[in-house]
Design a protein that fits this description.
The chain has 552 residues and is an alpha+beta fold. It is 31% helix and 26% strand. It is built from 17 helices and 23 strands. A hairpin with an 8-residue loop joins β13 and β14 (246-251).
């Protein structure tokens, strides 16, 4: 670990982390007579790029991560990290640190005017290792990931390295890199563009994101204050302290509160970020909530516009787009960064197997359709939320307010209220890697679904037991049917890609959540998505499902 990263690991507050600077260092690649070759180059050291680089490095790949800056994020930015993201970060070795610092929450409340309409619980059942969400400023998330990256000897990060040229060749990608000491070139087998919503790599390839920009603006204010609000998501429609608009409140670590104020399309973004414009809004909110004003410090402010955009395709030859470079959604629902980390997980195992020669290049072609499907799902939910939060006509406003008025006493109306459908991982129902069911199952664990957690009878948690880098099989039961299923898995998975077998009883939460009977088997991909399931598989069934999941 470098001295700079070691100092980062001991930084105790958000201000120190945001001020932390990574040094530019000259690379031997800059003096090479011909461009140095790298298996994978990841561009962008945000949460998505760092997660992808760590995942690949943990799988044994040599990874180069380039970033055009030398600091972590400024301001809270993405703060709501979902259960599935935390489970991915558990596998990457940073989940405990994220959760120890973050503010855990499961409950949200929806208000109309000054009335509480209802509350909802995003994780109402017990038996999960992680909460529905934590709130954690993006700079903390990036700091934990950067420290973890520095622990991996096969992962190199180059700060102040800006990709300024990108040319696809017959067997790779030629990159031109600008540095404080001039430009150099390097060759990559594959490039992952995780370089944000204004993606320079997207522009270099002549691509663009298309979609819908909504005519409304919101102010983000990070306010540090001592108030005794619970760790819940509070959303107001048309509150008396901010009439005709909406407000969202989240608690963050360090006594910081994230407040989103709807402003309207005609608001001046620069003027609204000024403290003298923010203070009256915060004061009015505190008077309404507490009956008094409270002292506070303004830590950060930004104004954003709703937009739902995506590239037509996420794969362009040997260049893969992930996170905001590939798709963008409105922030209500926390679908941006969470979806991006899931992009990274989807791409990592496929790149790893192809680079090792354990799967054909055709496997990489599945990244685009799977994650484009997930992006479309997120964009649909985000668009619907935006249309409900910011009605565009008198009729739609009348419908929204009537729905809200009904929601206090009528549960059916609450299903229509949309203050942002909170992030959930996509079930990849249409994936070509899935083996369709031939047996009847109940529940949501169909092919394409992400595995769900459960406590193990022996102690610990199922998803942490599945934290390896390869395929896994859940075999339920301890009788003759289970023994036959186990033998089928062992025989059907013989070859260069061994399957990690997890034996589970036919009782308990895991059996309930997977609708298990004696002999039931679930085959899981390396990213913990179900790719096949059977009541009584044969060795041929298992072998065929593995080949299908590898596009072989």
């Amino acid at each position: 670990m470098s001295p700079a990263t070691s100092a980062l690991s001991h930084a105790s507050d958000g201000a120190a982390i945001q001020q932390h600077a990574f040094a530019y260092r000259r690379s031997p690649d800059q003096d090479a007579a011909t461009p140095a070759c790298h298996p994978v180059v990841v561009v962008g050291a945000g949460p998505v790029g760092l997660s992808l680089a760590i995942d690949l490095a943990q799988r044994g790949q040599r990874v180069l991560l380039l970033d055009n800056d030398h600091r972590l994020s400024t301001g809270s930015r993405a703060i709501c990290f979902a259960k599935r993201t935390l489970e991915i970060w558990d596998r990457l070795g940073v989940g405990d640190a994220m959760c120890a610092k973050g503010v855990e929450w499961n409950v949200g409340k929806v208000f109309f005017h000054d009335d509480l309409l209802y509350r909802f619980d995003l994780l109402p059942e017990p038996g999960h290792a992680r909460p529905a969400f934590i709130n954690l400023q993006q700079y903390y998330a990036e700091a934990y990931l950067a420290v973890r990256a520095a622990q991996l000897p096969n992962l190199e990060i180059r700060w102040h390295n800006t990709v300024a040229g990108c040319t696809q060749t017959a067997d790779g990608v030629l990159l031109g890199i600008d540095t404080p000491e001039g430009r150099y070139s390097l060759q990559a087998d594959y490039v992952a563009a995780c370089d944000g919503s204004r993606s320079p790599l997207r522009a270099l390839l002549g691509q663009e994101s298309k979609g819908r920009v909504f005519r409304d603006r919101f102010l983000i204010a990070d306010v540090k204050m001592a108030v005794d609000f619970p760790a819940e998501r509070w959303f107001w429609f048309d509150p008396p302290f901010h009439p005709n608009q909406s407000v969202l409140l989240h608690r963050q670590p360090d006594g910081v509160w994230r407040i989103d104020f709807q402003l309207g399309w005609d608001a001046d973004p620069e003027a609204e970020k000024q403290p003298e414009r923010i203070k009256p809004r915060v004061d009015a909110m505190m008077r309404a909530a507490l009956g008094r004003e409270v002292p506070y410090e303004l830590e950060w402010a930004s104004v954003y516009t709703f937009a739902c955009l995506r590239m037509d395709a996420f794969v362009h030859g040997r260049v893969f787009f992930a996170g905001d470079s590939a798709h963008g959604v409105s922030p209500f629902g926390a679908r941006g960064a969470n979806s991006g980390v899931q992009d990274a997980e989807n791409l990592a195992w496929k790149l790893d197997l192809v680079l090792r020669g354990a799967a054909p290049r055709a496997l990489l072609d599945s990244y685009g359709p799977e994650r484009e499907y997930a992006a479309d799902e997120n964009i649909l939910n985000s668009t619907r939320a935006t249309d409900f939060i910011t009605p565009k006509s008198a009729i739609s406003r009348l419908f929204r307010d009537a729905t809200l008025a009904l929601a206090k006493d009528h549960p059916f109306a609450r299903r229509i209220v949309n203050s942002g459908r909170l992030s959930v991982p996509a079930t990849l129902r249409t994936s070509t890697l899935n083996t369709p069911d031939r047996d009847a199952f109940a529940g949501a664990m169909l092919p394409g679904a992400p595995a769900v957690d459960a406590p193990l009878a022996s102690g610990g948690w199922l998803l942490r037991r599945l934290a390896g880098n390869g395929f896994a099989a859940l075999v339920f039961g301890d009788d003759a049917e289970a023994a036959s299923a186990l033998a089928a898995v062992q025989q059907g998975s013989e070859g260069p890609l061994p399957v990690d077998v997890v034996r589970l009883p036919c009782s308990g939460l895991a059996a309930e959540r997977y609708d298990a009977r004696p002999g039931t088997v679930y085959l899981l991909r390396p990213d913990q998505h179900v790719c096949a399931r059977w009541r009584a598989p044969t060795a041929a069934d298992v072998s065929a499902a593995l080949q299908k999941a590898l596009q072989a």
